[in-house]
Amino acid sequence: MIAFIDDHRAEHGVEPICRMLPIAPSTYYDHLAKRAEPSRKSKRARQDDALRPEIRRVFEENYRVYGVRKVWRQLRREGFDVARCTVARLMKDLGLKGVIRGKPVRTTVPDRSAPCPLDRVNRQFRVPAPNMLWVSDFTYVATWQGFVHVAFVIDAFARRIVGWRVSRTAHAGFVLDALEQAVHQRRPGAGLVHHSDRGSQYLSIRYTERLAEAGIEPSVGSVGDSYDNALAETINGLFKAEVIHRRGPWRSSEAVEFATLEPPRLSRRPELSKDRTSWTGRHTGRALTRSSSGSGRCRWSWTISTAIAA
Predict the structure, then answer these.
(1) For residues 219, 221, 226 and 232, what is the CA-based torsion angle, rounded to 10 degrees?
(2) Average pLDDT for residues 264-292, to the nearest whole number?
(3) Of the residues 20, 108, 170, 240, which has the maximum number of CB atoms within 10 A of its CB?
(4) What ranges do the domains of the chain cover?
(5) How far is 201 from 209, CA to CA, in rounded Å?
(6) Which CATH architecture has domain 133-252?
(7) SS3 readout for the chain
(8) Nearest residue to 192 (alpha-carbon basis) of 165, 210, 204, 172
(9) Could you count the other beta carbons within 10 Å of the beta carbon of residue 243?
């Protein structure tokens, strides 16, 4: 914003530009004074100005692979009294990022060109009755055959999983299968809201058309904010912590699928999980059927109802 005013002040003047932008003329002039006389800056700003070239130097000298932790430790070795959070903040400002092992996995790929529904939940995940709010999300699991994805549909009233699906690819069809299971199992009426993130799978034409066909109102959170879908993120975290991380490593997607299908173990101390979401809970019944297609491939049909600390 300061650079924009610098570029156009000769043509339009400072005050007219500031009236159109969310900045006061005094703020702009104060910035000019500090730029002309650095001693007028705050102590933190002066320290940041001194640390930025040092951080960039350490980053460049180490083949642009160091992350926050290694840059911070190298600066400490060289005698700089700097906090790790300061290094993280300045590296973010400079656009510096260390390398990571392997290929980064993105489960949420927003489709910015698609029309997006409004956020009808506004982080309020408590509802007075079932089939008023469903939340959906999917996560990934590392196996010996590669990453597999697990999608969940959760009823917010009892934190109950009403639909789920395991797939080797994160396409729209696999999250649609989880929704189909939930719709078939619950037969919801009018007034149900379906909330998800802005992943392209949940904004796809097939998914939104199925929601409209079932009379379900769509709701989508904001970009890059996990709190807007916190309930689904919590279920994903519990699934990873209490099932995936404890029982791994996983050989294949089938192993993950059967582990997800297994009924949760009954809690020996049910009072400890009261009013607390937990993967261990009550199992209300299951029926698993298998049918063969003409191509020789088998398809499993899930009609399992799993209660998550209802």
Answers:
(1) 0
(2) 41
(3) 170
(4) 2-94, 133-252
(5) 12
(6) 2-Layer Sandwich (3.30)
(7) CHHHHHHHHHHHCHHHHHHHCCCCHHHHHHHHHHHHCHHHCCHHHHHHHHHHHHHHHHHHHCCCCCCHHHHHHHHHHCCCCCCHHHHHHHHHHHCCCCCCCCCCCCCCCECCCCCCCCCCCCCCCCCCCCCCEEEEEEEEEEECCEEEEEEEEEECCCCEEEEEEEECCCCHHHHHHHHHHHHHHHCCCCCCEEEECCECCCCCHHHHHHHHHCCCEEEECCCCCHHHHHHHHHHHHHHHHHHHHHHCCECCHHHHHHHHHCCCCCCCCHHHHCCCCCCCCCECCCCEEEEECCCCCEEEEECCCECCCC
(8) 210
(9) 19
Report how far residue 35's alpha carbon sits from residue 113's, in angstroms, rounded to the nearest whole number: 40
Exposed e or buried b for every residue in 81-109, given b needs 16+ CB within 10 A?
A: ebeeebbeebbeeeebeeeeeeeeeebbe
Question: Distance (Å, rounded) from C-alpha 276 to C-alpha 66?
Answer: 40
Q: How far is it, in rounded angstroms, from Cα 34 to Cα 155? A: 55
Rounded to whole angstroms, what are the CA distances from 295 to 169, 235, 254, 291, 292? 20, 36, 19, 12, 8
Q: Indicate whether this model's pTM tops 0.70.
A: no
